[in-house]
Design brief:
By secondary structure, this protein is α+β, with helices and mostly antiparallel strands. Helices cover 24% and strands 24% of the residues.
Length: 360
């Protein structure tokens, strides 16, 4: 005898699904792809179904680190999602979206280049590229709020908060992977404009110094304890990171670094091309030569920085004089060369008129 119970039939039984990888998902690891597709499924279970062979890519077994490509067909086995977990995930997503909408500034930035694959903006100084470490919203969060119709926006690389200039944002996952591969293989060209205190020797063109990252130790309750710093170390240091910067003197004031009777002191405007992308690389490389970047609050001349910020010098400078000026890469679709420039922002251009008159 069959017993038929009327009323709520209960949740539908999970079914096998086939998902075709689109352009925005291409290049992802299989495990990350599944974690996005199977929201609410515990991570341990995702890895279990991969190891057991229940997940198939183009009808074949695949490992967690397999990269999925456009057009791949991924078989997803029946998996039961906890209704409570799913509701919690949806509620948290809604809460985050509402909080972001109420607090995040939907800011736009000066666009230097844009097509269907990537976007290049001129980032102002003082704005972090992403939220975190005491910063609620960075460039990427603000862009997403300003472009709610965009389905994909991701940072290709980073710039220090106090550095202005060229910043790349991918609009497709395939473009993100391609551009990051170019960065990794050192196929891009990145040149910065930096103003240093002193007369840079024209024959000093290569800075090949290994760097090491560390955290500041607590000292009498110092506010900056635990902050990240970088220093030059010997090449045989166990944590040494090979770092290469190429330096070209663009203009020099011809004055000594010590102020003269008029309060004027010597500076050099440098074009610095980095062949490695280490944290604070340019700042530490230049400071290690005894000529720090003007306005650098971590590795610079702190007394001079205060003097410049107060306006007691002939001109005022309230930020670090480091600007991502030129960028070169291959277009992620066509392979054609792309070269972009971001001119000095007004506050740096004005200070440069006093610091190195011959540069303008």
């Amino acid at each position: 005898m069959k017993h038929i119970i009327e009323g709520n039939p209960g949740p539908a039984l999970p079914q096998v699904k086939s998902v075709t990888v689109d352009e925005d998902s291409a290049g992802q690891r299989l495990d990350n792809f599944l974690l996005r597709e199977l929201k609410g499924v515990p991570k341990t279970h995702v890895y279990r179904i991969i190891r057991s062979g229940e997940v198939r890519v183009n009808k074949g077994r695949a490992s967690a680190d397999t990269r999925v490509e456009i057009g791949d067909v991924v078989r997803l086995p029946p998996v039961r999602t906890s209704e409570r977990v799913e509701q919690k995930v949806q509620a948290m997503a809604l809460q985050v979206a509402q909080q972001a909408a109420s607090r995040a500034p939907a800011k736009t930035f000066t666009v230097l280049f844009e097509d269907d694959f990537f976007l290049v903006i001129d980032k102002p100084a003082g704005v972090a590229v992403h939220g975190g470490s005491g910063v609620s919203f960075g460039v990427i969060e603000q862009l997403r709020m300003a472009r709610p119709q965009a389905t994909f926006l991701e940072l290709v690389h980073r710039l220090d908060r106090e550095t202005s200039g060229i910043l790349l944002i991918a609009k497709k996952r395939s473009a993100l992977k391609n551009l990051q591969d170019q960065f990794r293989e050192r196929e891009t060209g990145k040149t910065y404009l930096a103003l240093v205190v002193g007369q840079w020797p024209t024959n000093k063109k290569v800075l090949d110094k290994s760097l090491h990252k560390y955290l500041l130790a607590s000292k009498d309750g110092a506010a900056d304890a635990g902050e990240r710093r970088v220093k030059v170390v010997d090449k045989d240091h166990p944590d040494a990171m090979p770092s290469l910067s190429l330096v070209k003197v663009r203009a020099s004031s011809g004055l000594p670094p010590v102020a003269d009777a008029t309060g004027q002191r010597g500076y050099s405007l440098l074009e610095v091309t980095i062949k490695t992308g280490r944290t604070h690389q340019i700042r530490v490389h230049l400071a290690s030569e005894g000529m720090p970047i003007a306005g650098d609050d971590k590795y610079g001349d702190f007394d001079l920085n205060k003097e410049l910020a107060r306006g007691s010098a002939p001109a005022t400078l309230k930020r670090m004089f480091l600007h991502a000026w030129r960028f070169q890469c291959r277009h992620p679709l066509t392979g054609n060369k792309v070269e972009l420039f971001a001119e000095l922002p007004p506050e740096l251009a004005e200070f440069l008129k006093f610091a190195v008159p011959t540069a303008t």
